[in-house]
């Protein structure tokens, strides 16, 4: 037998063996009931959870009328009203003798991790109704416009497209120290299916809506596998490829968690490069723009900064280790930066982190975290929401009282 013929036989046997192995693997996975993920579709609903759906202006929003049990981080029954808000129904026309408060924010404000009656905005409505400045005079309505994953860019668009329909007297922006600056930068944010704002050549802050033209496969490299680059008819008929995709995305998920931990540590430091400098510049510009538009509507504006879990960690040794490992000079740098922005631009900022830390230190409790998730990590638990409602109520109530004080005569 010639060498060429021998080579052909060996190649044929090898390919045949591989094919047989693939067939056996496909049959084995199906018999064992092991499933993976199919190829990402050409058209995908950009939805963080089953309670969300795509939105052309915001990237995603809560799905009108959606409801069901949430069992992930925390537990609750989620019900979305007809206007895509996690809240009860509210008329757009403000009822007579009513003080309306609109709350903008991300997942801390949407708060699907706790029952609705435990959320800070629900508690705030009840507490503010007992404020001496309004009790017996006005009814208080607090309306929740929070949506999971939103950055300040989306919150500004939400203000323009939805909030003003409800004629609020007060607008509260709940700003999460942990990732809101990151969310506002296309060079730091992983999920690019969202609107951003950029400064144009004239120095004006303008929206960048190019996300609308992104194919699902280009939206988030951390959520895409090499399998998604293969033809759909192969992937969707191959259990081996689907399982391989699931395995790869599992690895990427862990890598993302590790990478984000390192990235988010930079929130607590002065910008060290042009990317972070621009992210902060855009973020501060968005907040000032929001303040300007609120003032133009004759409403009051309050920024509430929500601390990252490590800022309010009850274990001082863990906080110290985090500071030393990441070479952080001031764990409250972003809070102080936003406090100073409020001072220079003339709006109120309520920083919750240091007050929370004092409480968690003293009583050795956690304001973040759930038994079925990371202890003392992640989102606010019932205690976190309760503390926030108390502090926000004190701030707003004091402001309302000051408005009632008679002006000094010249």
Notes on the structure:
The chain is α/β, with parallel strands linked by helices. It has a single domain (about 50-405), classed as 3-Layer(aba) Sandwich (Rossmann fold). It has helices at about 5-30, 105-110, 120-130, 150-160, 180-185, 230-235, 240-265, 275-295, 315-325, 335-345, 355-365, 380-405; strands at about 50-55, 60, 65-70, 75-80, 100-105, 140-145, 170-175, 195-200, 205-210, 300-305, 350. The chain has a five-stranded parallel β-sheet, with helices on both faces. Strands 1-2 form a two-stranded antiparallel ribbon. The protein has a two-stranded antiparallel sheet with strand order 3-4. Helix 3 runs parallel beside helix 12 and helix 4 (about 150-160) packs parallel to helix 8 (about 275-295). Mean pLDDT is about 90; it is low at about 405-410.
Radius of gyration: 25 Å
CATH topology: Rossmann fold
How confident is the prediction overall: mean pLDDT?
88
Find the count of extended strands (DSSP E, 2+ residues).
11
Multimeric status of the protein: single chain
Tally of separate domains: 1
| Distance separating the two termini | 115 Å
What's the main sheet like?
Answer: 5 strands, parallel
- Which runs of at least 5 residues are low in confidence (pLDDT < 50)? 405-410
CATH superfamily: SGNH hydrolase
Could you give a quick summary of the protein structure above?
The chain is built from twelve helices and eleven strands.
């Amino acid at each position: 037998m010639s060498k060429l013929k021998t080579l052909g036989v060996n190649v044929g046997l090898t390919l045949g063996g591989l094919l047989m192995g693939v067939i056996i693997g496909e049959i084995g996975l199906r018999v064992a009931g092991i499933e993976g993920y199919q190829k990402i579709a050409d058209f995908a609903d950009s939805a963080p959870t089953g309670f969300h759906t795509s939105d052309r202006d915001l990237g995603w929003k809560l799905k009108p009328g959606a409801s069901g049990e949430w069992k992930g981080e925390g537990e609750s029954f989620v019900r979305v009203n007809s206007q895509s808000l996690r809240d009860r129904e509210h008329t757009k026309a403000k009822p007579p003798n009513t003080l309306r408060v609109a709350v903008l924010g991300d997942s801390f404000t949407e708060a699907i991790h706790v029952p609705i009656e435990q959320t800070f905005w629900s508690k705030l409505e009840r507490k503010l109704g007992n404020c001496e400045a309004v009790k017996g005079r006005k009814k208080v309505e607090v309306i929740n416009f929070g949506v999971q994953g939103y950055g300040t860019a989306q919150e500004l668009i939400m203000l323009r497209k939805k909030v003003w329909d409800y004629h609020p007297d007060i607008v509260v922006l709940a700003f999460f120290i942990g990732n809101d600056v990151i969310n506002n930068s296309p060079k730091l944010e992983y999920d690019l299916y969202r609107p951003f704002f950029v400064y144009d050549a004239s120095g004006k802050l303008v929206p960048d809506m190019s996300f609308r033209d992104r194919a699902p496969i280009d939206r988030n490299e951390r959520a895409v596998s090499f399998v998604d680059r293969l033809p759909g008819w192969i992937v969707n008929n191959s259990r081996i490829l689907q399982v391989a995709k699931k395995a790869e995305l599992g690895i990427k998920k862990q890598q993302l968690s590790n990478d984000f931990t390192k990235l988010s540590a930079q929130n607590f430091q002065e910008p060290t490069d042009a990317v972070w400098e621009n992210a902060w510049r855009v973020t501060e510009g968005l907040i000032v723009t929001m303040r300007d538009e609120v003032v133009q509507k004759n409403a009051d504006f309050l920024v509430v900064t929500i601390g990252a879990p490590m800022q309010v960690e009850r274990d001082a040794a863990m906080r110290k280790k985090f500071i030393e490992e990441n070479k952080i000079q001031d764990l409250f740098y972003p809070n102080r930066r936003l406090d100073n922005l409020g001072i220079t631009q003339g709006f109120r900022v309520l920083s919750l982190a240091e007050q929370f830390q004092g409480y968690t230190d003293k009583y050795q409790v956690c304001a973040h975290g759930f038994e079925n998730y990371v202890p003392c990590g992640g989102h606010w638990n019932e205690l976190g929401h309760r503390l926030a409602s108390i502090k926000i109520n004190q701030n707003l109530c004091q402001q309302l009282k000051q408005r009632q004080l008679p002006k000094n005569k010249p």
